[in-house]
């Protein structure tokens, strides 16, 4: 893939180990979750030092090209790096939408100037990105979006509003879908990069069923955007958007994230282990509630089947580049497993699994409740469960649209 | 599809070509209509043997190609696609595994070359009731001089009518239900006191009740260790289950493909019915389930080839997941075909009947879910 550290993987392993031991602040060991606490953390100086070191090295995005600030590692080397980080309790401080979705897409579709300008800044966590796709009137039918970008000669003038702009309140930049031609649906959409600090941009956080959330509403009123911020051709944004959504889906399904505690491997342990603790076992060591036991094992087998499928698709796609349409299968399978897990965990915990706050509940119990609620979003965002099934039906199985309708 | 070697791809392609040309579902229909006494077409099985499929897992010194379980699974998957009836699973996988894992040199020399050549069919005689339960062994092998006397009956013995030799689980000590005290025996079908009766099942495949009436066996009939046969039996059964899961994956894949074709051609309300979302999303679920089941089946077969410690867990996962998937797809095949799917003239009924028989064989979904939980300590 790129500049390998040598033919012997153990040479790279030694190099990675030495560097990590020299640069990872021991105070941050196992505190990967802290990075979301922003500046309130007492570890803030260490977090900054660690972020800067990883950013400089390019190892936050280990397989991106070195020429744009990535690590330039092969997939095998990236795995070794991860193993060495796990060994130390180190975690990747470089994250967010820039690394997961926008970066890979820009590497594929951006021009040289755009890549030079943005990729390195993402690799160093200098610029935080948010996604401006969904609108109040354009959810599952994303291509019906109406936020307008008018050509004013030397700039675009943007007006409209976006919703579910995750991290919008902290973001510096937004990758945004805008309408540049009202006479066509999919072919009238462009992919535009908007500075969130520009005049006319207003962000309001949204409270969700799980409590405070990173989701926001974003309003654009006469925002001037330079022409050079157009990615790909004018009215050619839909193709780029679809590619970006594939990256998003592989991220959501692949991690099996149920939105925190509801994630496949989230806090609180497995439903089987929890059931033995909260419900107890019979004389043969089986979960005493036979109905719950049969649902727990069915779920554990679903989770294993999903994990094996993710491994299989990784192995199969190593010769190809990037995610395939099969990511739709993984997204639905993965989010279902995550949600089933979250539901089982709170059921197994009984009333202890319904605490909202207070010291009557253990931290794992409280986070399981929030995770269960937060995880409901996973089958809605990134293309809902139903939209994924449309994609499987049409793009993979080749089934036609009903008469008189059109979709993506 | 797993990442295959070139040889594996060639084997799969050969199996696909042969089944499509020589053994389409119409061949199964012909076999059923003819009332073939063995539940398969011996001429077709001879062709399989000539292509070397009966020797895929057998070591080269005994006439096989020592090519592994994943490879044999590829063949079984293709056979499952067209519902090809054959004793390949019972003899070349299950019985061959028993001999390879537990047989003495003399036993291997006596049977493996014949099995590899397709000259002799072997069969597992392990179940004694309508639910798979390999610990529940009431057939007895009483010590008698230097040897044993075998008494009792086994049922739902796959390819029991064709078998020249049976691998029989019998109790040499302990009580029915104990894992200890079970011993495996190699029993030639022509031994005095062995009788069999065909069981006509809905799937038209070969199954039999085999009765052992004071069958005299020498000490050399013991396969593996006396009283300690259960762990060996589990290993043999896990290999048979994984092979059957591969066949079931093929059946489910084809049942889905045939149904998908129908969704794209059947016109109602002026459009193909596959344009209706109510059917599209069910098709998408089936496709998703098939992908998940395939991962499990391939992982189980690969684990056997690697002699990995998680074989039992992965095999139970595979058998249960592919069982659920085949169950769903075979039902949807009938439902989505509508009236035509209810007729005997259509293939859908064959897939439905075979699905249930295969699900029950070597443990259904509930058996393997319970086993998976026990293996994982809950």
Notable characteristics:
heterodimer, A: 408 residues, alpha+beta, Butyryl-CoA Dehydrogenase, subunit A, domain 2, Butyryl-CoA Dehydrogenase, subunit A, domain 3, four-stranded mixed sheet, four-stranded antiparallel sheet, 11 helices, 12% strand, disordered N terminus, B: 378 residues, Butyryl-Coa Dehydrogenase, subunit A, domain 1, 12 helices, 52% helix, 15% strand
Structure description:
The complex is a heterodimer of chains A (408) and B (378). With 408 residues, chain A is α+β, with helices and mostly antiparallel strands. Chain A has 3 domains: 9-94, no CATH class; 129-237, Butyryl-CoA Dehydrogenase, subunit A, domain 2, CATH 2.40.110.10; 256-396, Butyryl-CoA Dehydrogenase, subunit A, domain 3, CATH 1.20.140. Chain A is 42% helix and 12% strand. In chain A, the strands form 2 sheets. Chain A has a 4-stranded mixed β-sheet. Chain A has a 4-stranded antiparallel β-sheet with strand order 2-3-7-6, with no helix packed on it. Mean pLDDT of chain A is 87; it is low at 1-5, 34-39 and 254-267. With 378 residues, chain B is α+β, with helices and mostly antiparallel strands. Chain B has 3 domains: 6-120, Orthogonal Bundle (Butyryl-Coa Dehydrogenase, subunit A, domain 1); 124-227, Beta Barrel (Butyryl-CoA Dehydrogenase, subunit A, domain 2), CATH 2.40.110; 231-375, Butyryl-CoA Dehydrogenase, subunit A, domain 3, CATH 1.20.140. A 4-stranded mixed β-sheet of chain B has the order 1-4-5-8. In chain B, strand 2 and strand 3 form a beta hairpin. The mean pLDDT of chain B is 97.
Following the backbone from N to C, one meets helices and strands of chain A in this order, namely HHHHHEEEEEEEEHHHHHH
Q: Under the CATH scheme, which architecture of the largest domain in chain B would be assigned?
A: Up-down Bundle
Give the helix proportion of chain B (percent range): 40-55%
Order of helices and strands of chain B: HHHHHHEEEEEEEEHEEHHHHH
Count of helical stretches of chain A: 11
CATH topology of the largest domain in chain A: Butyryl-CoA Dehydrogenase, subunit A, domain 3
Average pLDDT rating of chain A: 87
**Can you identify the CATH superfamily of the largest domain in chain B?**
Butyryl-CoA Dehydrogenase, subunit A, domain 3
- Percent range of helical residues of chain A: 40-55%
